[in-house]
Amino acid sequence: MPKYIHIIFIYLLLCSFTLPQTKEPNMFSQIDREKMNQWVDSVFDSMSFNERVGQLFVLGVDVNLSARNKELIRKYVQDLKIGGILFTKGTVKNQVELTNYSQSLASIPLMITLDGEWGLSMRLTDAPRFPINMTLGAITNDSLIYAYGKEVGRQCRRMGIHVNFAPVLDVNSNENNPVIGRRSFGEVPEAVAQKGIAYARGIESEGVLSVAKHFPGHGDTSEDSHKTLPTVNHSLEHLEKFELLPFRRYINAGLSGMMIGHLHVPALDPYTNLPASLSPSITDTLLQQKMKFKGLVFTDGLEMKGASDIPGLITKALLAGNDMFVKPLAPETKFKELLKAISDEKIPHKLIEEKCLKILRYKYILGLNKPQYISLTNLEQDLNTPQTERLKRQLIESSITVLSDSTNMLPLKKLDQRKIGIISVGQQKAESWQNMIGNYTEISAKTTVFSTSKSKQQGNSNQLADCNTLIVGIFSNKVADAQIAENLCKGKKPILVFFISPYQMKTYSRLIKNASAVVLAYENNDLTQEYAAQVLFGGYGARGKIPVTVKNLYTAGNGIKKQPSRLGYTIPEEVGMNSRTLSQIDAIVKEGIENKAFPGCQILVAHKGKVIYNRSFGAFDYAGTHPVTNTDLYDIASLTKAAATIPAVMELYNDHKIGLNQKLSRYIPQLNKNKEMKQITVKDALFHETGLPPIIPIYPIVIDSATFTGPLFKGKRDANYRIQIDNRFYANKNAKLRKDLFSDTLSNTFSLKIAEHLYTVSSLPDTIFNRITHIVPSENRNYKYSCLNFILLQKAVENITGQPIDKFLEKNVYRPLGAYHTMYHPLESVSKNDIAPTENDEFLRHQILIGYPHDELAAFTGGVSGNAGLFSNANDLAKLLQMWLNKGEYGNEQYVSEHTVEVFTKTNSNRSRRGLGFDKPDIDKPNSSPTCEEAPASVYGHTGFTGTAFWVDPENDLLYIFLSNRVYAHRWNSALMTLNIRPRIQSIIYKSMVR
Question: What are the Beta-lactamase-related domain coordinates in residue numbering (predicted)?
Answer without folding.
Answer: 585-969
